[in-house]
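Chapter review: from sequence to fold.
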Amino acid sequence: MLLGWIALPWLLAEADNLALFALHQLYHLPLAAWIGAPFFRADSEVMFVVQPAGRVLTAVFYLAIGGAIALVGQRRTKRTG
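The token string follows.
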């Protein structure tokens, strides 16, 4: 019982790190599967490693998607309003 209480913060920290790593991989997965090298490097331990240029490309991609959605929404409200 005492070992469980001692190990609990470590286990929670590891679970938090794994959850953040999984979210990181899911965030970059669409472009990593589509584009690949040189923006994303395949790795045997993890699915892929994100290069700095891949981080920039992913951010620009999601900003463009968000901008397109906002533009369509703005035009739709102009037509109906």
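Two observations follow directly from the output. Residues 2-34 form the longest helix (33 residues). The longest strand covers residues 40-42.
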